[in-house]
Amino acid sequence: MSWLRRITSAALSSTARGIFSQRPNLPARMLSDVRHPPALLDRTKSQDRMWSRAIQDTIDRTAETTQKKNPPTPDELWAERSRSATFNPPADPYTGRRVFVNGDLGEAFRRLQTRLRRNRVMQEVSRQRRHEKKGVKRRRLSSERWRRMFANEVRKKVQLVSTIRRRGAY
């Protein structure tokens, strides 16, 4: 990378001198090609150094970003993330079905019922009261699948109708 710095610093110093300060030995044609207003051409040498230093810093930062090390391997990522993650294994079978009470017992009971309903715990309990034959289980699962697909199709049709109505049709 040192060869790049040498080339860029030489190019920058000549470029900076050419753009930011008037040079009497430049032909008039080259001065007319400069796209900066004449006020920018009347810079002092300290301003030239400041601008060239800023440009050089930008180039150095860009060169550093291209020289970054290779991306971490999956093993390194796993090790890094597992150091920062805290894994709390369930303490007992009721951990996911437990709700903390913050003073309002009714609200805590409603949250517990919602969680149990979402996890379908009562359905599972009622199913496990008796043995379910293989054929009965197959028919039940098939029926549940059919009901889910039917509900999904009805939902799609309702969305389509509401979209058409929003567009202005009756």
Automatic annotation (TrEMBL):
List the residue ranges of the region (Disordered).
62-81
GO annotation, biological process: mitochondrial translational initiation
UniProt cross-references to PANTHER family, sorted A to Z: 37S RIBOSOMAL PROTEIN MRP21, MITOCHONDRIAL, SMALL RIBOSOMAL SUBUNIT PROTEIN BS21M
Give a yes or no for keyword Ribosomal protein in this entry: yes
Protein's recorded name: Mitochondrial ribosomal protein S21
Which keywords does the record carry?
A: Ribonucleoprotein, Ribosomal protein
User: Has the keyword Ribonucleoprotein been applied to this entry?
Assistant: yes
